[in-house]
């Protein structure tokens, strides 16, 4: 079984281990990030009598700092190398996570959160770049999409497991010690996971972002045109994906699906995505990433538009699976397109620029979704999302020579 899994990885012998360790380190950092800001800090602050808004402010400024600094973070990786930059990143992250429970007020907590965001800013551009440059050109769509898919479960584990552990810890009333107040076992788990990420980063001594066969660096004018083509689409598609973060639960309640129905929708969508990703990755390799990306966007738009018609309950699960199929096409399509257009020289910095636009869209999506919900009704976010996906698909229909 393990042998078959290794054989299916897109990077090849001698490279699979390096990339999988880098992805694991990224996943552990995301587990800590999600567990800290969404599972641990809100409960820890409440137990100390500090305002819950401090946790929200800390997350907002942390995420904003990470978003704004991804391009400079990628540039640092290009200039100084992946291992030293990510080692410094993991070490600073470890120290800030350790210090946060001791913050005496909101101001210190926010400063630590900003520092944590700056420390994590090089990680995503570095790992995405590594996964693309170490993969043969024909398998780059699959290689890049695997990063996002592999990290997803870490995010879920951080949210659920750390939140549950913190809930049990702070619900215990038989301890009034300082160790109990600042976090005890939940904090120890977060620090252990971040320490493991540091050890994995230190093992990346063989990781190089510039293989022996390096393409010539793109001219600045060509790179600007490429980024001008990618950035609006990156912003729009993540804006569409982020629309539903804060409205999906009230929507499922309003149409009669309830909590278990929401779980069923997530299982149907995620199951379709994970089961088809290998197939769509091969199709992106065979036919090119752009057709798969356009197909994925149009399938997602169709699913959202049909959900806005408030169909029978059973049909929501079919439409969730349709969305999952669209996302399975979108992931290798988008990753392959970016990997094929960005120059290998300076790719980490360029990828950081693209990911900054993605994060801005993801951050603005919930705001747009709630505004549409409040002003236009509960089906409006789905219609807006469908329109954004169709608009994005039309962007990718531009002739290749426009680049």
Overview of the structural elements:
The protein is an all-alpha fold. The protein contains 17 helices and no strands. The protein has helices at residues 2-8, 16-48, 53-68, 70-80, 82-99, 106-120, 123-133, 140-171, 178-182, 184-202, 220-241, 248-254, 258-287, 289-307, 313-341, 347-376, 380-396. Helix 4 (70-80) runs antiparallel to helix 16. The N and C termini lie far apart (43 Å). Mean pLDDT is 82; it is low at 211-219.
Task: Give the helices and strands, then pairings.
Layout (H helix, E strand, L loop, with lengths): L1 H7 L7 H33 L4 H16 L1 H11 L1 H18 L6 H15 L2 H11 L6 H32 L6 H5 L1 H19 L17 H22 L6 H7 L3 H30 L1 H19 L5 H29 L5 H30 L3 H17 L7
Helix pairs in contact: 2-3, 2-7, 2-8, 2-10, 3-6, 3-16, 4-5, 4-7, 4-16, 5-6, 5-10, 7-8, 7-16, 8-10, 8-13, 8-15, 11-16, 11-17, 12-13, 13-14, 13-15, 14-15, 14-17
